[in-house]
Each structure stands twice: as structure tokens, then as C-alpha cells.
Amino acid sequence: MRPTLLLAAFPSLLLAQETATTLKDQKALAVTIYNDNLALVKDTREVRLPKGTARLAFQEVSAQIRPETASLRNLTAPRDFWVAEQNFDFDLLTPQKLLEKYVGEQVTVVRSLPGADGSGAKEVREDATVLATNAGTVLQFADRIETSFPGRIIFPKVPGNLRARPTLVISLHSGVEKAQQLELSYLTGGLSWRADYVANLAPDEKTLDLSGWVTLTNQSGAAYPNATLQLVAGDVNRARQRPERIMERSDMARPMLAAAAPKMAEESLFEYHLYTLDRPTTLAVNQTKQVALLTASSVPVRKDYLLQGQNYYYSGSYGDLGEKQKVGVFLEFDNKESSRLGMPLPKGILRVYKRDSEGRAQFVGEDSLDHTPKNELVRLKLGDAFDVTARRKQTDYKSLGRQGKFGSVHESAFQVELKNAKKEAVTVSLLEPLPGDWEVLQESHPHTKEAAGTAKFRVTVPAEGSATLTYRVRVRW
Length: 477
Hints:
Elements: H1 3-9, E1 18-21, E2 26-34, E3 38-49, E4 52-59, E5 71-74, E6 82-89, H2 95-101, E7 106-113, E8 122-132, E9 138-140, E10 145-146, E11 152-154, E12 167-174, E13 178-188, E14 191-201, E15 207-218, E16 224-233, E17 259-260, E18 264-269, E19 272-277, E20 281-283, E21 287-300, E22 302-308, E23 328-334, E24 348-355, E25 361-369, E26 377-384, E27 388-403, E28 406-420, E29 426-433, E30 437-443, E31 447-451, E32 454-461, E33 465-476
Parallel strand pairs: 1-4, 2-16, 14-24, 17-21, 22-29
Antiparallel strand pairs: 2-3, 3-13, 4-12, 5-13, 6-12, 7-8, 7-11, 8-9, 9-10, 14-15, 15-21, 16-19, 16-20, 18-19, 22-23, 23-26, 24-25, 27-28, 28-33, 29-32, 30-33, 31-32
């Protein structure tokens, strides 16, 4: 039956007395938060409903609720229980909103005036009509219109659609008169989470200790006390829609961090991964909270020095290609059980620290980590090397014109000098993106074909010394 037909058949729904429910009626609360500023809330409350038609004011819901997703279930007496209409009242009670609602209505203005004989002040009351509230208040008295007036305004009542807190008003029918458990589920914005990781690198840089934290942020305009908390990691598709009304919160405080020790259990869910906190937790309004996600110690790690080439090197004469070229520093480890890990890692930022000679932890770099399944490689760029440098120059170039089906053929020779100021030897990987059909004609160090358009050289540079890579390549396209 369509809602309009229900209302036509049961007009008493529109006149039913309103019953309010607040957080004090709450019996259970579950919150599932997704990556993309989206959460599913399941709020179970015990409410005494009359038999027949009723209006239920479900208070203290999220201010960013998506009303079209709200669904109310009766867990106690579902027989003859149905919902006819739902209205989300998001106009919250403030002095300005109250004044706006009374445009065209009558209010009472109270002024304090000194007594005629010098005695104490006395109150004078006048009725006035609110004409406008745009950039100021305009009042019409019996004999004048004023825009600036001393005193205070008295309102006869609060309008029905102006609420002290976000409220979902539900017109329903109950089959019995008694206390019943009702579960309201809905999607909302304003709740988000992200993963943050901290890695402490061992002195020999062979292993690291890894801890993962989930950072939760609640800007939804509602509190979620003692909630069962679950997090979904993965890219959930959402249909495009018009921008939703977001409530203005100019009084939003800067969130503080709170931490909890127990880590989260993990399981597969469809094509995503679900993490569950093993205890209830409270998400306060305008709060950021941290809870432990994972810990792993002595994870084997590898350091890699990388010099990245450019494909334009091979199509012209360039000579010296720079005084110094940056050599990137990368860390990589395997997300495997054999490496003391082996669990799906949600995307986030991984920050790496290492202790100095005095034992103080120092920040040495960070990188973004994408959703990483079990048994995958994790590779992080931490920065550029200070003591390992490179200088590249082109030592020969020839344009060989057309050859058969190829419209352009080039031959180039390069020299890459690597220097190492460290007290230990390092190995530098050089990735050379080669365009078209390519062939290495000469090389001082053997290369591997990493991909169709990439050659990789590995050069070991001695401690406090240097090494030089030379190679000649022909490219056709």
C-alpha cells in the first residue's frame, strides 16, 4: 500500500499524540563505519507505544542522517506493526531559528523603564509582529516599526517542527499497547575512519616493529554511547546523488585523541574486509578516537636505493643531464605469516621511526599504503638518500632515420656515475623506461627486462667509493 493511500485510509495518523524516545531508552547500539565518510547505525530502544496509530519522535539521531535509508523494525511485537510516514526534522532550536519561525506571527517585547519618581525600574510589555529577520530583526508595534530596540522577546511556544536535537518523526501503527523494542537502522555521513601505522626500524635496518591504529572521527552531530563498533575496509560503490544538506557547525571544537589497547578481529565480508572491536566504545560528538588495529614485531624488511630514468633521454641529444640526480630510498616487506604479518591491511599512512645513538626515536619518512591483501608486497618511499648520489650524462647519440617498418630509430650511449659516502657498500637499482622497440647493445652491468618498456640495472657501490654504469641502447618506433 502506498503511503498516500495509508494516510487517506487512516487520517488519525496525522492527529496522533507524539511519543518521544531518547538515548536513555537505548538498549543496544551498533555502528559500522566505511572508508568514504559513511556509516550504518543500528539503534535499538525500548519504547511504550499505544495500541493503534501513534507518532514516534526518535530523538538524538545523527544530524547527517540520510532519511531515505531509515528503516524501523519492531523486535517485540511485529504483528500489525507498520510505518506510514517518516519526517526528519533537522531545524534545531536556536534563538535565531526561533525568531525566523515567528516571521508574520505575534510576540511579546519586554522593556525595562525607570520609574517616574526615580524608583526602581519597571517592566513594560508590548505586543509586536515579527516582519523580517534578514540581517537584523524588524518588529511592527501598534503605532510604529522598529529595527533596534532594547529588551527581550517572549515567544508563546516552540513551533512543532523546531527541535532541540535532530529528530526522526515516524507515523506508525502498533498492534499492542506495551513497551516494545524498536530497531532504527540508517545510513549517515559525518562518521569516518582511517588507518595509521607506526613502524620502528631496528638499528641494523633488517627488521621493524609495526603497530596499526584506527583513527575514528565523529562529526555527525550525535553521540554513540557504548556502541558495538565495526569497520569496513574496501572501496564500496555508491550511486551518485545531489549534494546533501550538511548542518553548519561553527562551534566545532578541535578533536582530541583517545586510545584503546585491544586490537580488532578481522574477517572477509563480500569483496571487503570487516574489522570488529572486541569491546563496546563510545564515540562522542566532535571527537577523534584511536583504537588498536594490529601489532607485529621483528618483521623482516629490505632497503632499496632507486634511481629513476626518463624515456625522453632516448630520442635526442642531451649531453649532461644534471649535476646530481636524486636516489630514492625505499623500504619493503612481505605481508605474510612467515614475516610475522599476514592480515589484510586497510589503506592509510605508514610512518617510520628509527632511534639515534642516544636511543631517541627520530622520524625518517612516511608513505601512503593502499588496501593491501594478505601475501602482498608492501613498498614505501621514505625520501631521497643524502650520502648516495648520481650523475648522468649522454656520451653518444645518433639518429639513424627510418629502418624498415620503423619511422624513427635512435641510438644513445649513457654513463651514470654513482657515489657512496657511507661506511658500508650499497646497491642501487636503476630503472630505465625505454620507448618503442628497444635493444641494449653494450652494458657494463647486466640488465633485466622488468616490463615491456623497462630495463633494470643493479650496481653495487663500495663504501666511501663510486661505481659507474655505462650502456648503449637502440630504440625504434
